[in-house]
Amino acid sequence: MSEQTVIQIKALNKTYPRGFVHRYEALKNVDLSVNKAEIFGFLGPNGAGKTTLIKSILGLLKHDSGSIKLFDKDIDNTDVKNNIGYLPETPNFYSYLTAFEIMKLYARLYNMKDSFLTPHPPLSGGQHSESLSDNGGFKGSVDAVIKEKLELVGLKDAIHTRLRAFSKGMLQRLGMAQALINDPALLILDEPMSGLDPIGRAEFKEIMRSLRKQGKTIFFSSHIIPDAEELCDRVAVIRKGQIIKTGSVTELVDTGIVNVDITAKGKITDQLKQGLKDILYSPATSNNQYIFHIKDMGRTNAVLSELMKNGFTIIKVEPVRQTLETLISNMIKEN
Ligand SMILES: Nc1ncnc2c1ncn2[C@@H]1O[C@H](COP(=O)(O)OP(=O)(O)OP(=O)(O)O)[C@@H](O)[C@H]1O
Ligand SMILES: [Mg+2]
Q: Which atom of ligand 1 is the closest one to the Cα of 52?
């Protein structure tokens, strides 16, 4: 396991009971590694196994076989636990408490005290001890830290509001604030953007980017692919408990170049139509300009020379990429 690897999962299997005799295979032979300071998106449709894997990583579910290491240690290591922030899929808080009071409760669970320099001891002995001690700890009072986190997630005006009066999006924001309370080196977020309006989603993305800049690692699940495309360094796609693709977003999107569009200026003649045969074209916005749509990339040069032979001026040649969303939807369908 490299020094840069924060989560390492090998050959993980997890089954749930189904009826009296059967077991449902929720995770099948999952291999996954997440590196330090990366935003890793765990994508898949409903019921694919995202929450099951997240709960297994956190030790909330027991897996049947395989191994999970966090910072090269087991999840039941207290130092590891102290360095994780977790936003559950459906955060459930005591509704009679205020945002401030619930944060105080979480701070107490992490044993945070005023003027603490390190709320949690850095992982000792491991390769990560140095990096973790760098970002562990805070100065000042616990109350100040709570206010700072609540303000960060946009709950400044609701600090002393009881949670029964919180909207879904506000509860989600509170969930994020509690995940950040202990200044964790690793954040595990199950559908962090669910229930948020577009402004909230943009704010959350900004928070995640700034955490990455501070060297934090973020692992989040989502089925909203455009969010992941914008944010993630790498993604894994899961379908029916199996990882069907892992890679960097750019790598994945590059494999999705399927068509080429050529914009060119000239006159469409019968001779050109003859030469291009089955190539589709459509008028561009400017006069006498057309866009030629090439479905088979291998024909690009032949089409270009045919156009030039017919007196066309080439204005641009551009690859048409599939969005990550189309790519992943196709992958899921194909599998
Ligand atoms: N406690 C459980 N007992 C039995 N089956 C379960 C249990 N939890 C999950 N499952 C099944 O395991 C599969 C994966 O569920 P999981 O909650 O991990 O999916 P998910 O990818 O998080 O879906 P979603 O996007 O809807 O949150 C589903 O088929 C689900 O029915
Ligand atoms: Mg889920």
A: 18
Domain count, the chain: 2
- Does residue 50 have its Cβ closer than 6 Å to ligand 1? yes
pLDDT in tens, 37-94: 999 999 988 899 999 999 999 999 999 999 999 999 998 898 899 999 999 998 889 9
Q: How far apart are CA 56 and CA 59, in angstroms?
A: 5
Q: Which residue's alpha carbon is at the smallest distance from atom 16 of ligand 1? A: 49
Query: Is 176 in the same domain as 266?
Result: no
Candidates 12, 46, 51: which one to mutate for ligand 1, based on the most atoms within 8 Å of Cβ? 51
Q: Match 């636990």 to its residue by tokens.
A: 81
Q: 168 and 282 share a domain? A: no
Q: Give 118 Cα–ligand 2 centroid separation in angstroms.
A: 33
DSSP secondary structure string for all residues of 246-290:
EEEHHHHHHTTEEEEEEEEES---HHHHHHHTT-EEEE-SSTTEE
User: Which of 219, 234, 252 is at the close of a domain?
Assistant: 252
Q: In whole angstroms, give the CA distance from residue 54 to residue 87.
A: 10
248 and 273 in a single domain? The answer is no
pTM of the model: 0.80
Question: Which residue has its alpha carbon closest to ligand 1 atom 29?
Answer: 47
Candidate of 12, 13, 14, 16 to mutate for ligand 1, largest count of ligand atoms within 8 Å of Cβ? 16
The verdict on the CB of residue 49 being under 6 Å from ligand 1 is: yes
280-283 and 289-294 strand pairing? antiparallel
pLDDT tens by residue, 242-269: 999 899 988 877 776 678 999 999 999 9
Q: Are residues 77 and 220 in the same domain?
A: yes
Closest-lying ligand to the alpha carbon of 88? Answer: 2
How far is Cα 16 from Cα 203, in angstroms, rounded to an integer? 36
Does residue 201 share a domain with residue 273?
A: no
Tell me the CA–centroid distance for residue 16 and ligand 2, in Å. Answer: 15
- Can you give the residue range of the structural domain that contains 33? 5-252
Q: Kindly state whether residues 271 and 244 are assigned to the same domain.
A: no
117 and 72 within one domain: yes
